[in-house]
Every structure is written in structure tokens, then in C-alpha cells.
């Protein structure tokens, strides 16, 4: 059994033992999304991610890594608050371990959330945006060297499920849609890079999500990606973004994005 699959199986066994079985969906709460957990319903039990096989310690403020079990309507969700990033020096395999663990637990879908910079000037700070597609500029792939299921050459057309996007658009008010450019960071982009990304067709830019979405499709899961615009991208506004601003915008939107997630989970 290949390394990533074996690691996911071990982690899934530990989560089974500590948080229970029969999960339907994984929710990954990105930067600034942690407070949304309070809106999602009764949290059953939760454990620090680092106590589970294969999860490295997170080193980013606002990313306290916890794994929680909760029920939303009929959906049993596993929630990972905090994620592992390439920019912490971790591999694509480590970044996607949570998603692969959820697949090993039997989750059929995953909701990937993140904080991002808005490139499309029609977006505003505090707005949730559904990902229609992505541009992977990290230079990495979680499928490199890994086999999973039957297909090494994973098809990424409709990577972000049209069905889940329809549900989220019905539930959320004023939710946008756009293409997410995934960069490795952790530096923010230059204004020239933002002009390049806009010319490439990107509406949003962030430092996560793309590798997890690829891994989830590789495992046959349905993916929903939701970005929270925490700042407008460099060059679109005076000055530049800061990590504090990203976390602040997340806190201010926690109730709104939490209700959106809850509505989607109830209708999965
Ligand atoms: N760029 C990249 N990643 C981000 C940004 C940004 O402006 N905001 C939040 N995450």
C-alpha cells in the first residue's frame, strides 16, 4: 500500500477509536474560519490533531489544529480546524493527509474553506466566494508518486462539484463565484503578480486548498471550495494585507460563514 494511503488508514483507525464512525463529510476550516465552528451545531468530542497519526504541529497563529465530530441535520461531519500548509515547510503529502484520512473514514464529500485576497474588483472584504475552478501555482501535486484507487491521472474537470455549488448558492446570500489561484506563499503577492494572476483568469488568490482539492478528487470525493475574501489583493487598494487583517476579517464574518456551512451540511 503506498505511503499516503497507509498513513491515512492508520489515522482513520485512531479517529474511529476516539471520535466514532460513519462520517459523511469533512469540513476544513481555514485561516479566520475557526470561529465558524460555534455556528455549526453541537460539537461531540474533539481532539488535538497532533495526537493523530501523521498530523504535524501547526506553526501559524489562528490555526490551532483540532479535529471535531459534529452532527448537522442528518450529516455526520468531521471538522478539522486549522490545516497544514506548504509554506510551513511541509510536503504535499502532509498537506493532504487530512483529506485522505477523511476518505479512508468513508467521507463522500469535503468542504474546503480558506481566507483569500480578492483580485476581482467586484468582490468585497467579508464576502464568501464559491470556487468554480482553480489554478495550481504551487509547483506541487499530492498525486506525484502516489497511487490511489485506479487512476494516477486524475481528471480535474468540475473539480469543485456543480451540485454542491448549487446547494451553497441557494443557502448563502450574496455569495460570489470565482477562480482561485493557489500559491505557495507565505509572502503576499506583489502588485505585478496580482496583475499577472488577473490576466490568467484568477478572481482570488490564497495559499491553500488546491492540493487538498486534487487529493480529494483523486480519492473520489465531491469537493466544495469556499473562500472568504479577507482583504483586497495588493495593487487594488492602498498598502498591503497583513496576517492580522486576515484573522480580523475572519472573526467579523464567523457567524455569516458558519450559517452558510451549516446550511450546506444540512442539505448534503
Ligand atoms: N494573498 C494570498 N493569500 C491570502 C491573501 C492574499 O492576499 N489573503 C489571505 N490569504
Describe this structure in words.
By secondary structure, the chain is an alpha/beta fold. The chain has a single domain (4-266), classed as 3-Layer(aba) Sandwich (Rossmann fold). Helix content is 31%, strand content 24%. It contains seven helices and nine strands. The chain has helices spanning 3-19, 92-95, 97-104, 162-171, 191-200, 210-218, 243-267; strands spanning 25-29, 43-48, 66-72, 75-81, 109-118, 128-136, 176-182, 204-206, 222-232. It has a five-stranded mixed β-barrel, surrounded by four helices. The relative contact order is 0.22. The model has no long low-confidence stretch (mean pLDDT 90). Hypoxanthine (HPA) is lined by residues 115-117, 188-189, 205-207, 230-231, 233, 241, 246. Hypoxanthine (HPA) binds at residues 115-117, 188-189, 205-207, 230-231, 233, 241, 246.
